[in-house]
Amino acid sequence: MPSWPPVFHGVERQDVLDQDGDTRGRIRRVALASAIGTTIEWYDYFAYSTATALVFNHAFFPKLSAASGTLAAFATLGVGFVARPLGGIVWGHFGDRVGRKAMLVASLLLMGVATAGVGVLPTYAEAGVVAPVLLVVLRVLQGISAGGEWGGAALMAVEHAPEGRRGRYGSFSQIGVPAGLILAQLVFFALNSSLTPEAFRSWGWRVPFLLSLVLVAVGLVIRLRVEESPVFARLRTDDKRSKLPIVEVLRARPWQVLTAAVSFIANTALGYIFFAYLLSYGTSVLKLSSATMLVVVITGSVVWLASIVGAASWSDTAGRKPVYLAGSVLLVVWSIPFFLLVDTRQPWLLIVAVTVLNIGLGATYGPQAALFAELFEPRFRYSGSSFAYAVGAVLGGGFAPLIATALQNATGTSMPVALYMVGVSVLSLLAVLAFPRRPLVAATAGRG
What we know:
The protein is mainly alpha-helical and 448 residues long. The protein has 22 helices and 2 strands.
């Protein structure tokens, strides 16, 4: 096996950076900014998901039956996913042309405005059909923002990281997802526990969305203080930037885009079934309290966060592919036992179910930032990573809660939902098997 070359397409390896105290401090600041920024961004996104499961059917679709209202609410959730590839193309283009940092600031601003807008929306009772239409528009803006957020945060962390630790540092962008989910769930849990059901449905559900304004302000301060990615800075200095990065990446690396996107389908589908559909299923079908279900989801999210960090660090020594394979196999074999335990209605068995599921989710998400970066050359890396991530999210999580709800309503049982989970997990497993054993672009993304 030949050694990895020191230069790839005119971009020097970043592991030659001096590892003095100032450099280590800079890398830590970037990692922290990536984690906090993505936590805030995904808090906004998951506040919407949680409200969809708990209240949007009553606030925006009251004329429909309970089941149809839930389906309509989950459909608005899916609309945001449809917009994510567009966001991936737009943010990816400017991220590869203007810079990673600028796009992170822009995406956070857009997400904050859209989320706060949901908090001041009139309900159907106040504005009629205009209310759900405006809800969909704001959800589309959230989707466009999310389509570019992940790529920028992941690349900032990975491209600043030292050699041999890109999985670990890339995990800082990944933990923002469960951390944002935990934060959103805790806010909803506090409101749900302290307010009457009438007060929560009347105005309490708006508080998490308005709180976004404060969180976004904090995130902007942090992100504005970090330095641009050294990989992009060198591209700009050497004038090696792609003129049309999305076109170039689809021409040069179509197989990598396809396999990366398909590999993400199971993670995002099962993830949204866990933290969006499960809330609705537990409260409306199993007749468990909202407080119980929120505790179950929060517990699973903590496990997810921990397993992301562990899996990402493991991938720096074992390799990305073996870690992905282990997580993918676990998702396949656990999908049916997951619902068998959930349907017992026993809280401690629900916790067992979500704990094991989230270990699999962590193993298939923790190494993702480093792996996707290693699939694409720096000049079109933002576009390739963001587009693959967004397409996988659409195909997997975009309509997973809607599909799960429809399957359960049509059959009256959870087993078709479990089989759906098995199907998407097998599909992603096949894509993971197609990954190269070693990084494709190791010169600027680490050997891992």
